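I am writing to request your help with a piece of structural work I have in hand. A protein sequence and the C-alpha cells that stand for its backbone fold form the material at issue. Please examine both parts with care and let me know of anything in them that strikes you as inconsistent. The record follows directly beneath this note.
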Amino acid sequence: MKRIAIVLGLAAVVMSCARKDWRDASLTAEERASLLLKEMTLEEKVGQMCQYVAPCYVEPGKGSARKNIDATDENLGNKDLSDKVRRGEVGAFLHVMTSTEAVALQKLAQESRLGIPLLLGIDAIHGNALIEGCTVYPTNINMASSFNPELMEKIGEETALEMRQRGLFWTFAPNLDIARDARWGRMGETFGEDAFLTSEMGKYAIWGFQGRDGKYSGNHVVACAKHLIAGGEPAGGLNAAPMDISERKLRELYLPPFVAAIRDAKVGTVMAAHNEINGIPCHGNKWLLNDLLRDELGFDGFVVSDWMDIERLHSMHHWVPDSTEAFVVSVESGIDMHMQGDKYFEAVVAAVKSGRIPESRIDQAAGKILAVKFALGLFEQPVPEIPEVLDGAAEHRQTALEAARQGLVLLKNDGTLPLKNPRRVFIVGPNADSQTILGDWAVPQSDKDVITVLDGLKTVMPGVSIDTLCFGGKITNVDAKGIQMARFKASAADVNIVVVGENSQRYSAFGRTCGENCDRDDLSLPGMQQQLLEAVVASGKPTVVVLMTGRALSIGWAKENANAILNAWEPGQMGGQAIAEVLTGQVNPSGKLPVTVPRNVGQVQTVYNYKHSQYSRLFATNETGALWPFGYGLSYSTFEYSDATLSKSEIGVSESLKASVTVTNNGPYDGDDVVQLYIRDEYGSVTRPVKELKAFRRISLKNGESTKVEFDITPEMLQCWGVSEKWSVEPGDFTILLGSSSSDSDLTPLPLKVK
C-alpha cells in the first residue's frame, strides 16, 4: 500500500507539472513564453516578429498625424492588415494615434486563435508628444543641458503613465546616439556629444519608463535604447551615412550609454541603427547584435529594426541582392522584430521551411517578444481600459515647466538681462509665436496648451507695451519688407527680443530645417534671419537673442553684436513661460551646454574631448577654438570655486580617492550651478583625449551660501581601452580638473600619480 501511495504521489506531481499553463500568472514571464511557444505554429511565431504602422497614422484626417509616404506597402490595405491580425501574423503596431484605435486593435487580436495581445509602441521621445493632448516636455538636448538625471527619470515616469492611459506600452526611447556633428539634424533627440552625460541621462530615462526594477509593472512601459550604433557622426553630417570607426573609439565613446542601459537600467528592447560601421550595416551585423550585444553585454531583451531598415540592406546599402535576402540575413544576424512592411513574413516563413533559418532562432526571437508582453501584464488585460479622466495633466505640465527652466543656457549677457522694467518691448522673429517651440517628434497641439515666447512675455510682464512681428511662424516668411518693418519697430522699443533659429516640426508645413533627415551643410541661421537680426541691432536699442534650435548653430556675429543670448533649444509646451521668467529675472538661468558650439561649419567636428594633436596646426584664416565650450552656461549669480583638493596624491591602480571643491554663490541671486569633474590621462599606451567628463553634480545655493562638493574617483573612471585591447588602469600621471565648464580657464587642475 505504501508503494502504491508513493507511485500515486509521484503521478500527481508529474500531472501537476504537466498541467503548467502559459495562462498561469504565477509563472515567470520567460516560463510563460516558453510554454506558449509550444502551442504556436511557425506562422504564429513569425507573426510575433512583425510590426506594422497603425492604420490611423496613415489615413488622412485621422487623429493628428499626416500621411507618410513610407508608411504603407502598396500591396497591403487595412482589410488585409486586419486579416493578418486575426490569423496571428502581427505582433506589434507602432504609432497608434488614439486610445480608440488601441482598444480596437487589441480586440481584433483577441479574435486570433491564441488571442495573443499586440505590443503597441510609439516614439515618445520627449513625452507622448505624437498624440494631441499629451505633455510635450523639452527635447533631450534641453534635458542634457539641465545636467539633472533625476528630473529626466521623473519625465520618464510621467510619460509612461500618459502612454498607459492611452493603451500604449512601448516607447522607442531614449536616443543614446552621441551627437558629434552639428550638421546632423537629429542632435536635438540626443543628450549631446559626451558619453558619460549621455549614459547618465539615458539610464535615468529608462528607469523612469520601466521602473527601477526593470519589470514594467504598474504604470511603467518598456523602453528601447537606440540606435545601435555610432550614427551620430555620419559622413558629411547626413543621416544614415556610413561610419568607419576603430573598436577603441566604439568602446570608449559610443558604447558606454548602451552598457549603462543594459547592465544598470535593464532596458527591455534595443533598436539597430540606420548606418553601417566598418562596411557592415548595423541591421545585418552579427558581431554587433550577437557577439557584443548579447554575449558580451548580456542583453536579454529583443532587438527591433528601425523603420524599413532591413529592406535598406538591399535598397540603400547595396549589401545584398534583394529584400528577401535582407530579411533572412537580418534574422540570422540577430534582429528579432521587423518594423513595417509586407514582404517580411512570407520570406522568413519560407526560409525556415527551406532550412535556411533554424526554427530555434524563431523561437528565440518570438520567445523574447512574448516575455516582454507577459511582463507588461498584457495577457491579464489584453484590451486596455481607457480612463475617462486622465491623471497627472497639471502636475506633468509643471514638470515640463521646471525642465524647461533648467535647460535654458545663457550664452552671453552684458548686463541687459534680467530686463529692468522696460516700458516698450518689441519681440520679433519666426519662432516668437510658433509651435516650433515643441521640437521634433511632436504633433501640433491645441494653442491653449502651448505657451509661446510671446505668450510667456505677456503673462510675466503685465502692463508692458509689447509690439510684435512674428512672420506667421514661418522662417521662409522673413523677407526684405519684413526686415525693414522690424528695424522701424525696434527703434521705438526700450528693448528688443529676437527669437530666431530653426524648425524641427515633422508635421509642420512651415519648412523644416532641422530634425530627422533634415541635415545641413551650413550652421548659420537659415533663411534671412541673420539679416533680420542685423537690422534690429542696427536700431541701437538693447537686443536680446533667443535661439530656438535642435542643433548647435554658429552665431558668431550675434555673439559679437547682441547684448545677450539665451539658447532655448526646443523647450516644449511650457517653454515660453520659462523663457519669459529667465528674461525677467524670475528664474536664474542654470543650463550648461551638452555640446561644443563651433565658430563655423568648417570647424566640424568640434568637441571638447579632442586629442592633443588635433590643434597642433591652426587654421590659416580663422580662430581654432570653439564659439562656446561644452559645459558652459552663465548665471545671474557669480559662483566662486575654491579649495579644490584630492584626498590622495598617489594611488594604486585598484584604489579609489575623493576629490572636493567648495562652491560659493557670491550673488546677487539664489541660483543653481553644475559642478563638473574631468580627468586627463597625461600619457598612455594609446593617445588620450585632453579631458573627459567623469562626474557632475547640480547644486542649489542661496545668495551668499557655500557648500563643499565631493566626488568619488574610482578605478573605472581612470581606465581606458589600451593597446592590450581591454579595459585597464594604466600607471602614470593623471590630472583631475574641477570647475564650472570644460574650458581650461574654468577648471582647477589637481595632479594625481597612479602607481
